[in-house]
Amino acid sequence: MSAARNIHSSGDARRLAQRRLPWMVFDYIDGAAGNETGAARQRAALDAICLRPRILCDVSERSLTSTLFGKKTGRPFGIAPMGMCNLSGPGADLMLARLAARHAVPLGVSTVASTPMERLIEVAEGNAWFQLYFSGDGSGTFRLVERAQAAGYETLVLTVDVPEVGRRPRELRHGFTMPFRIGPRQFVDFALHPRWSLTTLFAGRPQMANFAMEGFTFDRTESRAKADWSTLKRLRDLWPGRLVVKGVLDPEDAMQLKSAGADAIQVSSHGARQLESAPAPIHALTEIRAALGEAFPLYYDSGIRSGEDVLKACTSGADFVFLGRILQFAIAAAGEEGLHCLWDVISDELSIAMAQTGITGLSASELAGATTPGAQN
Questions:
Q1: Largest alpha-carbon pair distance within the chain?
Q2: Quick check: 32 and 273 in contact, CB under 8 A?
Q3: Considering only CA atoms, which of 42, 170, 68, 178 is closest in space to residue 126?
Q4: Cα(77)–Cα(327) distance, rounded to whole angstroms?
Q5: pTM higher than 0.85 for the full model?
Q6: Exposed e or buried b per residue across 310-331, where buried means at least 16 C-beta atoms within 10 angstroms of its C-beta
Q7: What angle do CA 33, 39, 43 make, to 5 degrees?
Q8: SS3 128
Q9: DSSP H helical segments within the chain, as ranges?
């Protein structure tokens, strides 16, 4: 029986992935900063939001479509940029790209993707946004911007919440580095997970593919602290397409970004992987929406685990939502079949939640009645 048949929720995907992945890889994908209280706070905040059940509404015809920058999408959620996705399974980047093409949703292509950006936008049939980290003195950063433009990317996502890489003890305990350095501990870990190890060996060790042809290496731990508002201005002047700024949790920063020419803002705590004491991003989303007004494009990621979570984010002010590590867990659990299965689960959960809250679409007017403000479970 296919393992995908056992995926009925993102929790199922995570449990299956934990069995199949080496400890080092699982904890890299799953881990959060510090003692992981930020991740717990993020989850608790989402759980505390109640949706408002409504009855006797004709919800027989429901739409899960949305619109991004004037383009229709098949779902109100897309794929967040994630580094080294091929760790979850050989070809994972391309699986995600095919999923993006199938549903006409954006694929976030990470600076540290394990497949070149040119290949991913091709497979995604243009449904790809390039995510950018500023690093070091910025020389390599702006070369990647020029390359993204040449590859046909129309949307650039600047991630701004990593001036220094957060400490994630779970991955540090395993000696996780990119690229891999294999020592005795890692060798034993891989030997105890032969299915992953053999398929990865045959496919080739995952690497940071965007740097293979650039003539320089990317140090994941290198300081990014030199980036400031002048860096943003330089990028805005250089980039002719749409600019999304990701990793925003403060309303004042959001207002300044709007004034500085950002086309959209993505509220995110980096999956609680950066600052352990950061506020729950779902709370920041509500505050930032209030500061920006209803018309400015506002997106959300961090901690989304279900279709109900997607609806909660939309009712809290998000125009669009991005899914992250749960998609990697689905791939690790059951490959591309598992990925499509979980995507359908999230879609079904969202559609059912819409029916139960009496809404047929995700317009602001319909969403306004879907939550019970301040209600706790």
A1: 63
A2: yes
A3: 68
A4: 12
A5: yes
A6: bbbbbbbbbbbbbbbbbbbbbb
A7: 175
A8: strand
A9: 10-20, 23-30, 37-48, 92-103, 117-123, 139-151, 169-173, 184-191, 194-203, 229-238, 251-259, 281-292, 307-315, 325-356, 364-367
Tokens of 311: 């609806």
Please report, as a single letter, which amino acid is at residue 151.
Answer: A
Q: How far apart are CA 330 and CA 203, in angstroms?
A: 19
Q: Which residues are catalytically annotated?
A: 270
Look-up: residue for tokens 């993020």? Answer: 42
Mean pLDDT confidence for 341-361: 97
For the chain, give every domain's residue range: 3-372
Assigned token pair, 260:
């500085």
Query: Mapping DSSP to helix (H, G, I), strand (E, B) and coil, where does residue 212 land?
Result: coil
What residue type is assigned to position 38 of the chain?
Answer: G
Please state, in angstroms and rounded to a whole number, the distance separating the CA atoms of residues 267 and 68.
Answer: 16
The sign one gets for the Cα dihedral 214, 140, 176, 87 is negative
Give the span between the Cα atoms of 319 and 275, in whole angstroms.
25
Enter the DSSP assignment of 269: -
pLDDT digits (tens, 9 = 90+) for 78-128: 999 999 999 999 999 999 999 999 999 999 999 999 999 999 999 999 999
3-372 CATH, one of 2.60.40.1120, 3.40.190.10, 3.20.20.70, 3.30.460.10: 3.20.20.70
* C-alpha distances in Å from residue 129, one per residue of 169, 345, 348, 365: 30, 24, 26, 29
78-116 per-residue burial string, b: 16 or more CB within 10 A, e: under 16: bbbbbbbbbbbbbbbbbbbbbbbbebbbbbbbbbbbbbb
